[in-house]
Amino acid sequence: MVSEVSVLRIRTRLLVFQLIVLIIAVAAVGFFILSESRAAGEKKLAAEADRLAARLELNLVAPLWNYEESALNASLTAEASSPSVHALVVREKAGIKVAVNEDGEARIIEDSVLPQSLSRPPDRKVKIKFQDNDLADVEVFISRRELDEEFRRSVITMILEMAVFAAAIGLATLFSVIKTIDRPLNQVVSRVRELGSGDADLTKSLQKAGNDELGALADSLNLFIGKLRSIVEHAKINTEAVRQIQLAVGSNATETAASIMQITANIKAIGERIASLDAEAALTGSRLKELDASLSALRSAIELEHVTVDDTARAADEMELAGQVVRANSKESTESLKMLRGSALAGGAKLSETGTAVETIRSKVDTIAEFIGIIDGIASQTNLLAMNAAIEAAHAGAAGKGFSVVADEIRKLAENSAEQSKSIAGTIQEIIGIIVAAADSTRETDTAFREIDNRITGLVGHLEKMNAAIGEFERTGKVIADAAAKLKEGARSVESEAQEIDRARRNAIAAVDTVVNMSAEVSNGMTEIKNATEEINYAINDLKDRTNELGDVTTDLSDTMRQFRT
Fold it and tell me: Rounded CA gap, 218 and 109, in Å?
């Protein structure tokens, strides 16, 4: 018994334990997703830092070598304006130059003391060299503001989702526990209230919900009801035995007194009835004649019903035929929609292939853009070499004049190459924009194809349901036709019965005439019977009073026992 009544407690604890384990599992999955998202963001920032370092190695050589302060500041400002850059620190022999990104705008700081935000180690260190000469060291600080904001939003979203999930699971668990306890308990309360109402049904028993505390309570209450039913059944048997004795004692007296009283009343009533029998016979005759008009109206109604039943049968046949036509059309529409769905799926597949091709072209164009960047860098380095050659030719004087002309041509060629590479880069950017638009359009078209497929699928389902409904419609038409046939047969039966009633009416008129003749003979015999019954009535009254007292007591006891249903 101890192990049985503890089942409810164990079940409740198991539900709570499952809830806790499920919440912990969801939290673990959420934190794993957040960590993976953070790692992906860090990886993206690292790639951005590598690209920025490569650009700085190319773009800062000329300004640092030629001591062009404005060009150096412009290059630093342009690179530091990127949202992914927090600051660029250039360490020269002459001093330190810092380009800081403040709310999307770059600002140059020339100070030997770095801002507090740059106290952490840099994300990348770039050494700017030219012809084996160390020009400067550049430290790159990547901005993690967007990554931190995104991570913060993800954490808040995860916490809210976990809270909603935990609340839903908690409510489900609470509902399960309440369902486990409340329903059996309400059944017990309802059964006890029924027993206390004074009109209890002792044949019913409580259904045992399980081997727990409520199940043990149901078993105990069922045992009590069983014992109470046995007591009430025994009391009913005894009450019925007493009632039979009372009936045996007073049966003859009651029946005799009733018979005497009935005979006396009948004799008096017969005398009165015989006096009015003639009038009643005449009235009955007139009513039988009126019945002839009612029978004529009934026959007219039967004929009208025949016409109505025929119209109903024809309408049912037409309804069945219309249902067959509609079902055929619906079946044809279903097949057409299935073919249309196949075409839509094929179009979606072709569109997916087009999207893949567009993505491939986009990747190739990105590669060409990288090549153009390399050519631009080579042109810049060639221009620097031409400038150095011109400087050396000037130092050589007349002997370097021819070399100066060659250097000037090389410089012009490098500038022309740089302009052409910029023009090609702009064209490639336009192509990339067109490709991106084409890819977006392809994705939107693919989404539209999927929506078309979903709607066609839903429409096919509705048509199949309509086919089933039409089949039910046809079956209903058949049922109506069968019912109309049966109704027509019933109308014929009613017409036959009306004819029988008319024959019975004529026979009744003849019987009324016979009754009028017999009433005179009966009146004389009733006078003699009345005198004999008055003497018997006085002897029965005393015995009747005694049996009535015993009957009252037995009735009270029987009514009390009848309140319990066994």
Answer: 86
Which of 240, 191, 192 lies closest to 562, judged by CA?
240
CA distances from 503 to 35, 195, 295, 470, 508 (A): 103, 61, 11, 50, 9
Q: What is the pLDDT of residues 241-283, one digit of tens each?
A: 767 776 766 676 667 667 667 777 767 776 676 667 666 666 6
Quote the CA–CA distance of 127 and 136 in Å, as a whole number.
Answer: 6
* 386, 411 contact by CB (below 8 A): yes
349-390 pLDDT tens trace: 665 666 676 667 667 666 766 666 777 677 677 667 667 766
Q: Please report the beta strands in 110-166, taking only residues with DSSP state E, as ranges in sequence order.
A: 124-130, 133-142
Residues 6+ apart with CB under 8 A from 439: 355, 358, 359, 362
Domain 7-162 has CATH 3.30.830.10: no
- Distance (Å) of CA 233 to CA 40, 226, 228, 522, 563: 82, 11, 9, 53, 12
Residue 95 and residue 21 in contact, taking contact as beta carbons nearer than 8 Å: no
Backbone phi, psi, residue 25, to 5°: -65, -45
Which amino acid is it at 421?
S
> Do 142 and 86 meet the contact criterion of CB atoms below 8 Å apart?
yes
Exposed/middle/buried for 76, CB within 10 Å: 0-12, 13-18, 19+?
A: buried
DSSP strand pairing (124-130 vs 133-142): antiparallel
User: Which residues, at least 6 apart from 461, have a Cβ–Cβ distance to it below 8 Å?
Assistant: none
Domain span(s) for CATH 3.30.450.20 in the chain? 7-162
Decide: 319 and 480 in contact? Cβ < 8 Å: yes
Contact (CB, 8 A) for 126 and 53: yes
Helix (H, G, I), strand (E, B) or coil at 96: strand
Angle of helix 69-80 relative to helix 7-59, nearest 10 degrees, comes to 160
Kindly report the CA angle at 560 between 555 and 563, in degrees rounded to 5?
A: 125
In the CATH hierarchy, which top-level class contains the domain 264-543? mainly alpha
Start-end of CATH 1.10.287.950 domains in the chain: 264-543
